[in-house]
Prior knowledge:
Elements: E1 6-13, E2 16-21, H1 32-46, E3 53-57, E4 62-64, H2 77-83, H3 86-93, E5 99-103, E6 106-108, H4 110-117, E7 120-124, E8 128-130, H5 144-152, H6 154-163, E9 167-168, H7 169-174, E10 180-182, H8 187-199, H9 203-215, H10 221-234, H11 239-249
Parallel strand pairs: 2-3, 3-5, 4-6, 5-7, 6-8, 7-10
Antiparallel strand pairs: 1-2, 8-9
Helix pairs in contact: 1-3, 5-6, 9-10
Amino acid sequence: xxxxxxxxxxxxKKHIALIRLNRPDALNALNLQLMGELRDALKELxxxxxxxxxxxxxNEKAFAAGADIxxxxxKNAIDMLKIDQFTTWDQIKKTxxxxxxxxxxxxxxxxxxxxxxxxxxxxxxxxxxxxxxxKIGVMxxxxxxxxxxxxxxxxxxxxxxxxGNFIDAEKALQHGLINRIxxxxxxxxxxxxxxxxxxxxxxxxTQMAKEAIVKSFDLGISEGVLFERKNYYLLxxxxxxxxxxNAFIEKRKPDFKGN
Length: 259
């Protein structure tokens, strides 16, 4: 896969694909082309049976410092409706395989929203998270008001969004926005380590478990439990369930095939 603004390594490590945002001169600002490329890459990796986990990263200076303001500054409401940029975000959200964000430096505005769209976040000690859209006269539009509130609670989300102030990795970890922190030189290795642990599990089970967790944000507890139960039963139709349970009984490591 060849793109202009992202670099894709489908075989970065066994069963793990790596996507690097690659607009370093613009701090990986998320223009329409980059987001379209990211959508297409994730779809291809989702369809690749050899890939079980996907890691998304930027560089040490910036995961992504926000949307590309130059593409929006002269637009009116009708222009924005016609561009319909958030359709791309909706498609990215539908990625079935576990998606881990490896964040160093700035993850601001759309960059913070993109990290939160992923399933897990591993951050470097230099990471800064924020939704500073208020400072340019708008507000988050790619899920920031919803995901930040659900991750960190109303009070802190309100403060961050209404002031535009950033938080560091320690505070993000303390309030449940991220999974773990690593030194700058090791943050990607730490994300790959987490991805490797997940890739050892049954691909069917990880995808169905992810689907049920994501559904929990849309459903009440009763409906969510019914959805979880349906996915649980469906896994008994696959060979991975037989392999996993037999391996447990035989006191050996399972060899999952994804079927």
